[in-house]
Amino acid sequence: MSDEQSDLTPAVPEPPKPVATRRGMWSSGTGDTSGYSRIVRAVDWPAASEPPFGSWYDDAYNRLLALVDDPFIKVVLDRGELTFFVPREKVVEVMQALRDDALLRFEFCASVSGVHYPDDAGSELHVVYHLQSMTHNRRLRVETACPDADPHVPSVVATYPAADWHERETWDMFGIIFDGHPHLTRILMPDDWVGHPQRKDYPLGGIPIEYKGTTVPPVDARRNYR
Amino acid sequence: MGIEDKIPQGVVLTTLEGVFGWMRQASLWPATFGLACCAIEMMTYGAPRFDAGRWGQEVFRASPRQADLMIISGRISQKMAPVLRQVYDQMPNPKWVLAMGVCASSGGMFNNYAIVQGGDHLVPVDVYVPGCPPRPDMLIDAMFKLKKDIVAKRPMAKNEIEAWEAAERAALVAPATHEMKGLLR
Predict the structure, then answer these.
(1) Is the pLDDT score of B184 beyond 80?
(2) Sequence-ordered list of residues with C-beta below 8 angstroms from that of B136, at least 6 positions apart, any chain
(3) Is A129 a member of any domain?
(4) Contact (CB<8Å) B184/A211
(5) Is the pTM of this model over 0.80?
(6) Minimal Cα–Cα distance from A158 to chain B, Å?
(7) How many A×B Cβ pairs under 8 Å?
(8) Alpha-carbon distance A118 to A115, whole Å?
(9) For A44-60, how does the pLDDT look when each residue is reduced to its tens digit (9 = 90+)?
(10) Domains of chain B, start order
């Protein structure tokens, strides 16, 4: 959609570049326990969609285009669900417009969640917002991304107060810093915890378990699980 | 400690232990403390179908200061561990701990960074109940074993101190579980 992006905005890659290719059932290394090394699966992004989308999607798309200057990186309409990929410096503006405009009126932010794509260079960490419009009975997904080296995304708590704890959880689990959040502290893990457990490179942990006469190592030390 | 500390060891203290044990086992008060899915079975244990009221134990005290039994009903997360220990510390002596289910006993299926690998890392556990989750029947069985074998036979005064010291000495020389030999029963 956008012909020029600022340096701050990591580009969300265009399909069909796969995010990752996975081989075998259990292992990302050599030990394919299927024995055949034939289980190969590419993890793809859904293709970007172009207007017209049909249904109410065009109305929302055009309205947001009129309200916010150049809001989209891309728009994906997949399985009847609309997703706006938004550069992170536009998130606050886009959310404000989505909530306040009478033709959009997404009053309810149902969830804020994080995703970690370690192979997606330049935008390893994604933030996904699920919005619902009670007025129009519509649901919408807004997604933004930031690089692992600079994990900052503006907070939408000023627009959606319900996002407060969701953003704390996303910080806790993924280490994404929401600038402007009133008190960005851990919510699930203890306050002095080190690391962010839902990242793909976070170890599973665990301790060796003693049985009579033997000791069984923790799961991720037993096999090369993915 | 009370007046029983003044009693010399012997037949009087042993008789007193018997009387106190008999009374204590008839009035156990569990703390209201549900941690996970096992707590659902624990509620069923108190509800009409399994009916802990049959032997007068259906009431869970809402304050640990009124309770003398802690049922660890579920997995203990690292964040919950200090809370569990505080609840235990707030309970007055004498007190007992029942680890309900595999997670409370050993961490169960959750051998990972987030879960404490068994309640006995935090508090002294008297009874372990296996199962995932244990049926209320098993909790009833464990409760009666706790009452008859542990609560009713709790030593008092000097006998209690001796029992603790003997247990400590035995634990120091006992082999670690992975060093055990022989039939692996």
Answers:
(1) no
(2) B41, B42, B44, B45, B49, B50
(3) yes
(4) yes
(5) no
(6) 29
(7) 47
(8) 10
(9) 778 888 888 888 999 99
(10) 28-153 (3.40.50.12280)
Range of the domain at A121: 46-217
Task: Check CB contact under 8 Å for B78 and A215.
Answer: no
Interface of B with A (CB under 8 A): 78-79, 106-107, 111-114, 117, 176-181, 184-185
Whether residue A23 contacts residue A40, with contact meaning beta carbons closer than 8 Å, is answered with: yes
* CB nearest to A214's CB, from B79, B117, B178: B178
| Residue A149, SS3 per DSSP | coil
Query: Measured between alpha carbons, how far is residue B179 from residues A213, B117, B174 in Å?
Result: 5, 19, 10
CA distance A208 to chain B (A): 9
Pick the residue of A191, A194, A198, A212 with the most B CBs within 10 A to test the interface with B by mutation. Answer: A212
What CATH number corresponds to the domain at position A110?
A: 3.30.460.80
- DSSP-derived secondary structure for A188-214: SS-TT--S-TTSTTS-----PEEETTE
pLDDT tens for each residue of A162-185: 999 999 999 999 999 999 999 999
Lookup: tokens for A85 = 């990929």
Tell me how far CA of residue A104 lies from CA of A9, A77, A111, in angstroms: 25, 17, 18
Are B79 and A210 inside 8 Å of each other by CB?
no
- For residue B106 the two structure tokens come to 């050993």
Interchain proximity B111–A207, CB inside 8 Å: yes
For chain A, how many structural domains are there in total? 1
